[in-house]
Amino acid sequence: MLLHGLALSESDGDLETCCRAASVITHILKDNSQCKEKVLQIELEAPMPSLGAPELLLHRIVRYLAVASSMKNKDGKPGYSYVQPIILKLLITWLADCPNAVQCFLDSRPHLTYLLELVSSTSSTVCVRGLAAVLLGECVIYNKSSENGKDGFTIADAISQKIGLTSYFLKFDEMQRSFIFSSVKPAQSHKPLTRSTTASMAEIEDKLLGRNATLAEDLARTGHSHPELMAGSGSDRVQVETLRRDLQEASQRVEMLKAEKAKIESEALMYQNLAGKLESDLKSLSDAYNSLEQTNIHLEKEAKTLKSGGTSTSPDIEAIKAEAREEAQKESEAELNDLLVCLGQEQSKVEKLSARLSELGEDVDKLLEGIGDDMALPEDEDEED
């Protein structure tokens, strides 16, 4: 009958019936792991055969939660505000200390997205936001999955990105300070102490002592054999995950800087080789110019010899010599101008590259050390004309 109440349609009256059934099932599932596992396997038929495979009861309850949050009264205000807290309490009780229920809840990706939006929604009540935050915390603490995208670290990372850790923890404080939360904790009157209540209390105390002893033995055995596997609190796990993400980002940044440095060093080597080639070309041009000068001197000597011999071809020789000198001078000047332009462009590139290497902490003088020492231009060879 209770399951039938949960499996009704999404109309107003059926939602109220579902709410009452959820309240009863919450008390049944509390501290009952075996019952949680059994209810987790319940599948409901789809409302229409065309909708496909049967739907799990847990997923149907989450869908009712979303429907209840979207319903509004005639005046535009949210309706059935009491439905959401009751369904959230059922989910919190169900997922508590039940990793399989947490895994089932996270199997549908929209569930996590909706829960994050519900926690950060300004239209929800303080109680709804606080209970949704508790449910999110259970998805981290009781999460035993190692599947990528569904493990506890991924959920904690989603909380940090979508809500913010400070804002997330404030939801608990706001709920505890709310009137609704404080009004449900009145001072309870103590029952009279009788023989039956004394025996019941002694039995409960024995169970607690036995459970604590078992937990202490397990903790001592686990801590002695694998001390590195001891689990921290939820906040410690979130902090560790944040530090791990920061370290990963820093490592990526270092790798990017290393790649950029290697690229700049490669460009520096290329420009260094280019500068050496230009210096070699300049030396070749200087040698050619010197050769032209020697040819010019030789022609002048021949001209003087012919002139002293009194030949009639002296004017022609002088004209040829002048023309050859003029052509050689024009060719040399053009090549020198082109070379100076190239050297100016390369000098600008070398200065920019030197500035970039200095920013990266490289010793530019050490990189350029020894360049051009063995390619010095010959001095005082072109002073004579």
UniProtKB/TrEMBL annotation:
This is Golgin candidate 6. InterPro entries: ARM-like (IPR011989), Uso1_p115_C (IPR006955), Vesicle_P115 (IPR024095), Vesicle_Uso1_P115_head (IPR006953). Residues 240-370 form a coiled coil. Residues 21-188 form the Vesicle tethering protein Uso1/P115-like head domain. Residues 260-384 form the Uso1/p115-like vesicle tethering protein C-terminal domain. It comes from Gossypium schwendimanii (Cotton). GO terms for biological process: endoplasmic reticulum to Golgi vesicle-mediated transport; Golgi vesicle docking; intracellular protein transport; vesicle fusion with Golgi apparatus. It comes from the Eukaryota. It is found in: Golgi apparatus. Gene3D superfamilies: Leucine-rich Repeat Variant. Keywords: Coiled coil, Golgi apparatus.
